[in-house]
Amino acid sequence: MSTNLDSAFHLSQLAHPLLEASGRGSIVFISSVAAIVGIRNCSGAMDQLTRSLACEWAKEGNRTNCVSPGFIRTPINHHLLEDKEILAAESNRALLGRVGEAAEVAAVVAFLCLPASLYINGQVIVVAGGRTVNGNA
């Protein structure tokens, strides 16, 4: 397993007794659009972990979902977005014509933790401005 996947798996196992006791817990993993559009050296392991745990833990009333962001403006990649060619290329890949904002990803994560999403389980929700349906992915 990759380091992130290994950490996610172990944290999930540690949280499981608390989720089980609540009878209505929610885990939201963060993956990457790279697992969907097939970017080199990326796998869909986190997406599959999401589905597997959703199947395993649903009987206890717990939900497991995943958010897969596209290119999102963050402090870590700020230097990349200062390069006009990279910014243009990434913006072109999304149907909405821009890179995403961290708050847009956070809003989806928050929704998946709210009662409004109680019937959503085992899903990978892409927050990428339409990148996965664009021929320029």
Structure explained in plain terms:
There is one protein chain. The chain is α/β, with parallel strands linked by helices and 137 residues long. The chain is built from six helices and five strands, in the order αβααββααβαβ. The chain has helices at 3-22, 34-37, 45-57, 78-81, 84-93, 102-113, and strands at 26-30, 63-69, 72-73, 100-101, 124-127. It is elongated and about 50 Å long. The chain starts with a helix and ends in a 10-residue tail after the last strand. The model has no long low-confidence stretch (mean pLDDT 89).
Which helices and strands occur, and which strands form pairs?
Layout: H1 3-22, E1 26-30, H2 34-37, H3 45-57, E2 63-69, E3 72-73, H4 78-81, H5 84-93, E4 100-101, H6 102-113, E5 124-127
Parallel strand pairs: 1-2, 2-5, 3-4
Helix pairs in contact: 1-3
